[in-house]
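In the design runs reported in the main text, the only information available to the sequence generator was the tokenized backbone. The following block is the verbatim input for one such run; it is reproduced so that readers can re-run the procedure and compare outputs position by position.
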């Protein structure tokens, strides 16, 4: 998606031109572009009247933000204590094999970004996988293909 200053202006105006809203503005920008384009960070900072360094400080402090393009879907594999003990590392390895990327990377087709996290806060569902906003509890390595299949079109399902 091309950078569009008009879209950014709309987001900034939605929250008001206050530095206190920078986090919320960046969240909306990232939702729009699937990452924080450098042009967008500069544009937001200009619109808020703050130094660019303040924008980059927020953008790089929070793990939720990315300065590089992310996939259409983000796969989070929990590796917290409960998930680790119940097979989380094997689930992660299965995602690595199926997606042909490692943690922190995005698939070549731009469909998936793979992340490991320390805790998703649902230990009773261990091992837990979250794709976008959807949780898959008690996941096994053999269930990874089925999870991915729910997020790709039927035409692509044969690739897995």
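Verbatim output:
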């Amino acid at each position: 998606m091309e950078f569009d200053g008009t879209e950014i202006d709309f987001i900034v105006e939605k929250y008001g031109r206050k530095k206190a809203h920078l986090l919320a503005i960046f969240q909306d920008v990232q939702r729009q572009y699937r990452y924080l384009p450098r042009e967008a960070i500069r544009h937001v900072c200009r619109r808020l009247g703050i130094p660019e360094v303040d924008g980059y400080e927020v953008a790089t402090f929070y793990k939720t933000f990315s300065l590089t393009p992310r996939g259409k879907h983000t796969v989070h594999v929990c590796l917290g204590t409960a998930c680790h003990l119940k097979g989380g590392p094997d689930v992660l390895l299965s995602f690595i094999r199926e997606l042909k990327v490692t943690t922190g990377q995005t698939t070549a087709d731009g469909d998936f970004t793979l992340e490991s996290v320390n805790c998703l806060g649902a230990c009773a569902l261990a091992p837990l996988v979250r794709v976008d906003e959807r949780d898959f509890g008690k996941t096994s390595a053999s269930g990874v293909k089925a999870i991915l299949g729910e997020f790709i079109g039927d035409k692509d399902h044969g690739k897995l």
